[in-house]
Amino acid sequence: MTLSPRTEMTRLAWAVLAIAAAATLPWIATSYYLAIGVTIAMFTVLATSWAIFSGPTHYISLATAAFYGVGTYTTGLLIETLPYWTILAVAGLIGAVGAALVGLATLRLSGVYFVIFTLGLAEFVRQVLTWVQNVAGQKGIYVLTQITEAQIYWQLLGLAALVWLAGWLIGRSRLGFALRIIGDDEDVARHSGINTALAKVMLFMIPGAAAAMTGAILAPRYVYIEPAVAFSPMLSFQVVIMALLGGTGRLWGPLVGVIPFTFLWEAISSSFPNQTTLLLGLCFLLIVYLLPRGFVGLFHDLRHRGSGAAARAEAGA
After folding, report:
1. Which residues contact 257 (CB under 8 A, 6 or more apart)?
2. Is the pLDDT of residue 120 over 90?
3. Whole-angstrom Cα distance, residue 16 to residue 304?
4. Nearest alpha-carbon partner for 155 in 309, 22, 270, 12
């Protein structure tokens, strides 16, 4: 459905106001809620960028942790030699190039092979870095800066706005149209003259760059980074669960999943620290079974039923 320019501008204005309101959090919240806000902003970037690629293509990527870890180590290795903002740009470039290479190697294959490859990618990079550090006689890297929690939050919020803008522009471009055809039937898209491999690789570069920049921004928060922290596979599964919980049918869908799941995960981590992996798997099963299209799909179904009931009532009258 094509919206009128006036409706588009209204929605854009509301989005700008929402981001401006979110930017005031460091001034009005306690340190605990600011930390929660940083987590929400982080997962908003990761889940939204993931949905931009996986939503229309239906390819489930578990490579988020790999790109995130690469970004974290980019800051750790370059923080003493390059300006901070240059490091973020370098991290984004490395993430985009890495995603392009991974995409060229795997996106011509079926979705199952892509999932398996991306799942092993983070573990492979983690093991390589662990081996290199053991050979060099070190365990991790210190990231000592003057960057505060509030500054990290504002950077993540700005990155989230850029990701949303990219998703909005792609959704209204020829690339977005081509990707929707690929998601419906890749064979039809290929026979229609669409270069499906190139389209998927181009789109896959967005979550790669976004995840790497997110890791680079959050590196000062850790102070000390090591492979087990930077390349945690649980991060990839959390991003997928949050995106699916909210729904990938709308650009704002992942945010609807990020906010409640962040608070839920905070409660799970504090109450059941030894069962987090088990409960994460349980959450995934429940979401797939009970909300296959997420909150966005549920909202659409309820609105459709309400409209249908109203139409029947009017016809009966």
Report:
1. 47, 241, 242, 243, 244, 245, 246, 247, 294, 295
2. no
3. 28
4. 22
Radius of gyration (C-alpha) of the chain in whole angstroms? 20
What is the DSSP code (8-state) at residue 252? Answer: T
Are the CB atoms for 125 and 250 separated by under 8 Å? Answer: no
Cβ neighbours of residue 173 closer than 8 Å, sequence gap 6 or more: none
Long-range CB contacts (within 8 A, 24+) of 288-292? 288/244, 291/244, 291/245, 291/247
Cα dihedral angle (154, 156, 159, 160), rounded to 10 degrees? -100
Question: What share of the chain has pLDDT > 70, as a percent?
Answer: 89
75 CB neighbour count, 10 Å cutoff = 28
Q: What pairs with residue 141 in β-bridges?
A: 225
Banded pLDDT at 26 (limits 50, 70, 90)? very high
Neighbours of 198 (CB within 10 A): 14
Alpha-carbon dihedral 168, 172, 177, 183, rounded to 10 degrees? 20
Residue spans of the domains in the chain: they are 12-316
Give the lowest-confidence range in 69-73, 186-190, 232-236: 186-190
Q: Which helix (H) or strand (E) holds 63?
A: none
**Residue 142's beta-bridge partner residues?**
224
With a CB cutoff of 8 Å and minimum separation 6, the contacts of 254 are 44, 47, 48, 50, 51, 242, 243, 246, 247, 248
What amino acid is encoded at 138 in this protein? Q
Q: Which residue has the tokens 């990839």?
A: 236
Mean of the per-residue pLDDT values for the chain? 84
In one-letter notation, the amino acid at residue 18 is: A
pLDDT(1) > 50 = no
Instruction: Tell me how far apart the alpha carbons of residues 155 and 178 are, in angstroms, rounded to a whole number.
Output: 32
Tokens of 208: 């790669």
Place of tokens 């109450």: 271
Q: Where are the beta strands (DSSP E) in the chain?
A: 141-142, 224-225
Phi then psi dihedrals of residue 148, to 5 deg = -95, 170
In CATH, what number does 12-316 get? Answer: 1.10.3470
